[in-house]
Write a structure and sequence with these properties.
Blueprint: E1 7-8, H1 9-23, H2 27-39, E2 48-49, E3 55-56, H3 58-61, H4 71-83, H5 88-116, H6 137-148, E4 158-160, E5 171-174, E6 177-180, H7 183-196, H8 198-202, E7 204-207, E8 213-218, E9 250-255, E10 258-267, H9 268-272, H10 275-300, E11 317-319, H11 332-341, E12 351-354, H12 359-363, E13 366-369, E14 372-375, E15 390-391, E16 394-398, E17 411-414, E18 419-436, E19 441-454, E20 472-475
Parallel strand pairs: 1-2, 7-18, 11-20, 12-16
Antiparallel strand pairs: 2-3, 4-6, 5-6, 8-9, 10-19, 12-17, 13-14, 15-16, 17-20, 18-19
Length: 479
């Protein structure tokens, strides 16, 4: 048997079998239809093969049962099947009718959706139609696995042919075609990511459909005469004097969304458990990990296959420790000097990012007033009240991304609005039973594309003054 024109079992189950099931609702009729379809008008049969390329017989192929019908309908169909001959022409006609009916159903659903909902800004979510009728992500993922294990086909699964690309939503795509994941589930992962990571939402964020985005930026590193805006300069001139020209200088920032992936395994026992367990294991865990990795890259990324983080950026200003300052401490002078190095226009948007180890140091800060002192960080009620969590009027955010006490990055003063981030699409989700087939585990993969770097390439030399300024300020190591 020639297998060069073979059809994989996965593609047959995902894209062809559902159409045959809609026209032939009894096992006997379905078996006849499959037999005719595989001949395809060729002299040699076009086989369906398993993942090892081995041909399967029809009994092995019909592992996904026909769509259920009422008993009286099944009897009538059985009688009709025995008297009607199924030919290649009649089969093709039946498949076309199934496709036409499916398109008509989609048009009706689209018209109904247009009347009942207003879609705006990608916030359209949670309605039954958009979820394809699934109760939750676990129900859909379990149904997908059932098809892969040849245990049955749920008509709510939306199929994709081999090589097809989903647009406007995330998709489950196996190597042989696959199933569209209901958009709500992908959106929920992104919602968790934004909720868990407040850093990404604070950045100057762009979205792109391309693999690369180029952005022009003014190349300004000094406010001295002749350097403003990269070379623009004004001159005082008397009447009739010749004017002197100048021009700005630009640089180009290249952003390439980098791939961030999460791969998890779930045992058959976990998948067979109740929906909330699977929902927690798959959706929440993947979302939290995506959020964590993205936030960590914004602070600590090295720019090689990942975003360039603030700590490694050329525009970071590092404030030296005080003379004689004890190791692993933070003193009020550190805070004052960090504030003085923050660029003036960025102060209103700046936030303090700290490691939790830094909190006791902040709570001990005091400002000298006469012969005594007043707390800098503690509220008026002292330790009995909840800390204000503000320094110089700006919020103090505790993150896991900051370095431990005494190391560069343990306390940062940043304007995240001066950090450029670019994302490409939503979270992409896929599943496979083949990766860990021998251990009865299903692999779930989540992919996210993101890149980022500071708008500023270097710290800024002020017009008057010796200390450079930046939207990103750190305290140097104290050891």
């Amino acid at each position: 048997m020639d297998t060069t024109k073979a059809i994989s079992l996965g593609l047959f189950q995902a894209s062809i079998l559902p159409l045959l099931q809609r026209e032939h609702t009894t096992p006997r009729a379905l078996k006849k239809a499959i037999g005719v379809f595989l001949k395809q008008g060729e002299e040699e049969e076009v086989p369906v093969v398993n993942e090892d390329g081995e041909p399967l017989n029809i009994d092995e192929i019909i592992l996904v049962g026909a769509a259920p019908v009422e008993a009286d309908e099944a009897d009538e169909a059985d009688e009709a099947d025995e008297g009607d001959e199924i030919t290649a022409a009649s089969l093709n006609s039946a498949i076309q009718r199934a496709v036409d009916r499916g398109m008509a159903d989609l048009k009706k659903q689209g018209a109904k959706r247009a009347k009942g909902f207003k879609i705006s800004g990608g916030d359209f979510r949670n309605d039954d139609q958009r979820r394809f009728g699934w109760r939750d992500a676990s129900e859909q993922l379990t149904a997908i696995k059932s098809v892969a294990l040849q245990r049955g086909f749920d008509s709510r699964l939306k199929t994709l042919p081999k090589g097809a690309k989903a647009t406007g939503m995330s998709a489950h795509i196996s190597s042989d075609g696959g199933f569209l994941l209901a958009p709500e589930f992908s959106d929920r992962i992104m919602e968790i990511a934004h909720a868990e990571s407040d850093l990404l939402s604070r950045t100057d964020s762009f979205t792109t459909t391309q693999s690369m985005l180029k952005v022009n930026a003014v190349h300004e590193t000094s406010r001295a005469a002749g350097s403003r805006r990269g070379g623009v300069r004004g001159y005082w001139r008397g009447e009739g004097a010749t004017l002197t020209g100048s021009k700005p200088t630009f640089r180009q920032i290249t952003m390439e969304p980098q791939k961030l992936t999460v791969l998890m395994y779930a045992t058959d026992e976990q998948l067979d458990d109740t929906g909330p367990i699977l929902e927690q294991f798959i959706t929440r865990t993947a979302g939290e990990e995506i959020a964590f990795m993205t936030g960590d890259a914004i602070v600590n990324g090295n720019g090689a296959g990942q975003p360039l983080g603030i700590v490694n950026a050329g525009s970071l200003v590092s404030v030296a420790k005080e003379t004689g300052q004890t190791a692993t401490t933070v003193v009020k002078a550190n805070v004052d000097k960090m504030w003085s190095r923050m660029h003036g226009r960025s102060r209103q948007n700046a936030v303090w990012l700290i490691n939790q180890d830094v909190e006791p140091q902040l709570e001990a800060l005091a400002a000298d007033v006469g012969t005594g002192g007043v707390p800098v960080y503690l509220p008026p009620g002292g330790i009995a009240d909840t800390p204000n969590a503000r320094l110089k009027g700006r919020p103090v955010l505790v993150t896991e991304y900051n370095a431990t006490l005494g190391t560069v990055g343990d306390i940062l003063l940043v304007d995240l609005g001066q950090y450029l981030s670019v994302t490409k699409g939503d979270v992409q989700a896929a599943t496979s039973i083949h990766v860990q087939f021998t251990t009865d585990e299903t692999a779930f993969r989540f992919t996210y594309r993101v890149d980022g770097q500071p708008w500023w390439s270097a710290a800024l030399t002020p017009f008057k003054g010796s200390d450079t300024q930046s939207p990103f300020v750190a305290l140097a190591t104290r050891s």
